[in-house]
Amino acid sequence: MTSSSRTTGEAQADSIDPGDTPPRPSRDELARVTLEPLREDERPPALLVAIAVAALLALGVVVGALTVHGLSHHGGSLAGGVFLACVLALLAGGMYRRRYWAVLAFEALLAFQILVTSLALVVASTLLAAGLCLVSIVLAGWLFWKLVRVMGRIQARELG
Question: pTM above the 0.70 mark?
Fold first, then answer.
């Protein structure tokens, strides 16, 4: 069999040297390897901020639901406010205990808030409203971004 009659696969198989270096790991694999799991009782600053935000929002919702007169005329209800406050308090407690599901759920709420505030920015009628929307989007985006690494570290601790 001449070299011209060999198939491409056979030629490639012959050209691979067993001493070649293995393929380089991907960026994702490198990030996973370098990710340090959370130490016992460690709470990164971004997680503490998220806990505080969730707890303050829960408190604010309860206070608002109890003090707004004619809440149903504004599209709300006391039962709805209490339910939302309980969910936020549950998330704050779960994040304090470094539970992956709680951080993931809080990130979902942040993503929803970013989307809604972005839509509100489109229809903002004053510079003050537009500025508040931008500040809200930037702060929520920053917290979202910082919590992604925290989630990875929590998951690394659970898997490790």
Answer: yes
pLDDT digits (tens, 9 = 90+) for 78-119: 889 999 999 999 999 999 999 999 999 999 999 999 999 999
How far apart, in Å, are the Cα atoms of 23 and each of 18, 31, 93? 12, 16, 43
How many structural domains comprise the chain? 1
Query: Which pairs from 96-101 meet CB under 8 Å and 24+ separation?
Result: 96/43, 96/51, 98/38, 98/43, 98/47, 98/154, 98/157, 99/154, 100/151, 100/154, 100/155, 100/158
Residue (of 79, 78, 54) closest to 65 by Cα position: 78
Full domain range(s) for residue 122: 43-159
Asked if the structure places residue 67 within a domain, the reply is: yes
Instruction: Characterise 75 by phi-psi region: left (phi > 0), alpha (psi -120 to 50), beta (else).
Output: left
Please provide the distance, in angstroms rounded to a whole number, between the alpha carbons at the two ends of the chain.
54
Q: Is 19 inside a domain boundary?
A: no
